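Recall that a protein's primary structure is simply its ordered list of amino acids. Everything else, from secondary elements to tertiary packing, is in principle encoded there. The following example makes that idea concrete.
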Amino acid sequence: MPSDLTNRAAAMNPSLSRRQTLGDILRRTAQRLPHKTAIVCGNTRWSYAEFDALVSRLAAGLALQGIAPGDNVALLARNSHAFAAMRFALARLGAVLVPINFMLKADEVAFILRHAGARTLATDAEFAPVARQAATLQTQVRQFIWLPSEESTEPAQGMLDFNTLARCDAPLPGPGPDSTDLAQIVYTSGTESSPKGAMLTHDAVLWQYVSCVMDAAIARDDLMLHALPLYHCAQLDVFFGPAIYVGATNIITGRPVAERLLDLIETHRITSFFAPPTVWIALLRSPQFSEARLASLAKGYYGASIMPVEVLKELAQRLPRVQLWNLYGQTEIAPLATMLGPEDQLRKPGSCGRAVTNVETRVVDDQMRDVAPGEVGEIVHRSPHLMLGYFHDEERTRAAFEGGWFHSGDLATVDAEGYITVVDRKKDMIKTGGENVASREVEESIYRLPQVSEVAVVGLPDARWVEAVTAVVVVKAGHTLNEAEVLAHCSTHLAGFKCPKRVVFVDALPKNPSGKLLKRQLRLELNEAGASSATHN
């Protein structure tokens, strides 16, 4: 129930009466569906009324620990009920969520902590060592919050206990955030070596929820499995948030391993599931896969990379009752931008569809003119989903919004019916196993090896990863270098998913007369030579 303080504030500020924030949508769903199951994670099960009440207590507990509206609070953990509660508690308090990719190394985590100015870091047992190490690397982190998970319920020493904070009986201070206040800063890599923090407001995220509900058919009667990382905006804001918005039941797990996913889908009678193509492929290849085990599944979603046509056909043949959606976007647009629906999966294979309800999308040339059907141009967007800009980075913000449109950096064609197909990445982004990898970041790491004269990093087709990070290296004259040395160097300095799956040594890299590296030609040459036929796990 709203506090007396909130009621008095609303009387003095009528805008509170029409406010719509992330904290508000949970409360409203709890009022509509108090007894319906909201969260299931391991042995934890919360109704919407229980989830909403716990979020308010947790928000009050965070406030007592000095976390104030507008503070950036980082979160480094696998999916859990505690992650879900922290997401909404921070939103209700008015603090800003900074989710961090748990596959990053300590120095990479530290960069985000420093850039965001986070003084509080929430983590779980698995990532507590990385969190502690990262915090020592010239960050402002002053306190840790321990989060329980499916696999660990024992609090870590020297950390604030989630369960203790969630038992706070103090009133929640203040009226809470406004719709236009910042809800989250999500860090995303571009071609630059340093990540960028996309600033997303409550209303931007919620406009995106509306598009998800309308175009991706997210519904109240869904039993939705959340297995891909909640630190990633796709699982967090295309699926988990909209599911809370409409009042669906959410089953949360921390590890998207095929056998575990099959067990959860069968046990909980899951009806709705999202995963990148790599995970769908893993399910199909599992010896435990059977149509009977997935008999409840009605809606299947994929994104992050293109689903191979042969895999689409296999899914249609082996799971004929499952409708599929392809969802495309980027962090900066919260993240959904376009959608390819079930009726078009085999009619328009490889396409990312057309703009969703609250997005206007074009494919343009360098003069911002719409390209003709079949011609290559850049995807640009206008939408209330869009970020405010990049945190502490006015220069890259101006470049991203040049001409009054957000520039995605993706190159695409559009057909006569308006269906968009991504053909390349203007920013040389590699999407491997559902994760984004910036070519330049990997290149700069490899350039640290004194034996390297030149290096180019590209994504090549791969049966497991969809795109495999591949390093093409020119060794300095008079020096020697082998693949194992390059891989060992990368594993020391980069997260595992960023490390090359293959290293190819060449005498020279293809360039144009002005010296510009021709990565598209390089990819073609490597594909013809079969460089992607064998990759490392």
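The chain has 16 helices and 26 strands. The domain at 429-529 is CATH 3.30.300.30 (GMP Synthetase; Chain A, domain 3).
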